[in-house]
Specification:
There is one protein chain. The chain contains 16 helices and four strands. The chain is mostly helical and 447 residues long. The protein has one domain: Na+/H+ antiporter like domain (Na+/H+ antiporter like fold). A hairpin with an 8-residue loop joins β2 and β3. The longest helix has 38 residues. Keywords: Antiport, Cell membrane, Ion transport, Membrane, Sodium, Sodium transport, Transmembrane, Transmembrane helix, Transport.
């Protein structure tokens, strides 16, 4: 290996793999609740009591002078989902400061994979709906990966998959979410009011200064964040909503102000920095309440019987979204990584096999939370294409889950056999020996 070679993530430390594995296990619970909420919504929306479902979803409340008189469904999409994006922002900042994105050599592969995994599905969708220009507004619907849903499936079927593959998926999904957030901010925002936007920026700055100055205090006292930071965060969210920018972006902006301690300097309080502490506290609120409620009000689509289902199947939006997620995601991810390794000196970790990356690519085709949000933003209110897009998202997510599970279960069985054939912890220190071995020689992954 020459000094000019760049090698992408190689045998990450056991502590990092343990952290990511723990995160995946927590997300599995949220993924299950997400599925249950979506199924319940579909059943209710297509039952004899469907009018009650839509009456609840469309019921409006709030304070109009502050631009906050919203329907229940809008409160879930604009308000509760900001909690989910706050956690995405925390995880993204942690990856940038102390994780896989802190070095170019370890970040370039998942970043390239995520970018290609967004571009190819969008291109497939555009090609399919090109004959109807009015449908092009939905180009970003198949671009997003649902991090909670995807890691839930991986946690269920991938108990013996290599640590680098798990880290690759998590980093890919986080970068994918960041791209989706940028798309929402840039392409699904209109009529921006500068004064509320300026107030939002000031409030975020105040939020960040208080979080930094009082990080030890907030870490020691659980009530402090609710009393001090929550009101400021809510005010920032309200002003961003009033500005015309989608309010969920506030969650990411606020999360980026939370301090993350470098790995070499651990904080004194609770053994965690404030970002870890907040992630630990707020993840149950996101996974157990915010995201399931959003899914419940976003996934409720009235199919309209056989005739409605036939119309939905023939809609180019449906075909484009399904093709983009199920085909475009794995093709984009594999193509992006392959081109990167061909035209640069970047080399994949020998632990990452192409067949494993294909399984992760299929898994990335699970577009649920963010895809449903973009579907609601893409077409005018009441458009049948919105419902068709939601049906397509759920069908594609199911297909992607089944295809990914079929690949990863086979690979998981193979890794389990290898684990049984070797003594993975010969020295008895509870750390698998693979994480204590020298870096293997340079080589490209094999199938």
């Amino acid at each position: 290996m020459t000094e000019n070679d760049v090698r992408a993530p190689r045998w990450p430390g056991y502590a990092e793999v343990h952290r990511v594995t723990t995160l995946l296990r927590r997300e599995a619970v949220g993924g299950m609740l997400l599925v249950i909420a979506a199924i319940a919504a579909i059943i209710w929306a297509n039952s004899p009591a469907s009018d009650a479902y839509f009456a609840v979803r469309d019921f409006r409340f709030g304070y109009e002078p502050w631009h906050l008189e919203l329907s229940v469904g809008a409160w879930a999409a604009d308000g509760l989902l900001a909690i989910f994006f706050f956690l995405v922002g925390l995880e993204l900042k942690r990856e940038i400061v102390v994780g896989s994105l802190r070095r170019f050599s370890t970040a370039i592969v998942p970043i390239t994979a995520a970018a290609a995994g967004v571009a190819v599905p969008a291109l497939i969708y555009v090609v399919i709906v090109a004959s109807q220009p009015s449908l092009l507004a939905g180009w970003a619907i198949p671009a997003a990966t649902d991090i909670a849903f995807a890691v839930a499936v991986l946690a269920l079927v991938g108990s013996h998959l290599p640590g680098p593959l798990r880290i690759f998926l998590l980093t890919l999904a986080v970068v994918d979410d960041l791209i989706a957030i940028a798309i929402i901010a840039l392409f699904y925002t209109s009529d921006i009011s500068l004064l509320p936007l300026a107030v939002f920026a000031v409030l975020v700055a105040i939020y960040g200064v208080i979080a930094h100055r009082g990080r030890a205090w907030f870490a020691r006292h659980r009530w402090a964040a609710w009393v001090v930071l929550l009101p400021i965060g809510f005010a920032a969210w309200a002003f961003l909503h009033a500005s015309g920018v989608h309010a969920t972006i506030a969650g990411v902006a606020l999360a980026f102000t939370i301090p993350v301690a470098p790995s070499r300097r651990r904080p004194e309080t609770n053994g965690m920095d404030l970002a870890e502490e907040f992630e630990h506290r707020f993840r149950p609120l996101s996974a157990g309440i915010a995201v399931p409620i959003f899914a419940f009000f976003a996934a409720g689509v009235s199919v309209g019987g056989g005739e409605g289902l036939a119309r939905a199947i023939m809609d180019p939006v449906t075909i484009g979204v399904v093709a983009g997620l199920v085909l475009g995601k794995p093709i984009g991810i594999l193509l992006g990584v392959r081109v990167l390794t061909l035209v640069t000196k970047v080399r994949l970790d020998p632990a990452l096999k192409w067949i494993d990356l294909a399984g992760v690519g299929l898994l990335a085709g699970i577009g649920f939370t963010v895809s449903l949000l973009i579907a609601e933003l893409s077409f005018p209110a009441g458009s049948p294409h919105t419902d068709d897009a939601k049906i397509a998202i759920m069908v594609a997510s199911l297909l992607a889950s089944l295809l990914a599970a079929s690949v990863l279960l086979v690979r998981n069985r193979r890794y389990k056999q290898l684990a049984l054939a070797e003594d993975l912890d010969a020295d008895g220190d509870d750390v698998p020996d693979v994480y204590q071995q020298p870096i293997p020689p340079k080589g490209r992954p094999s199938a």
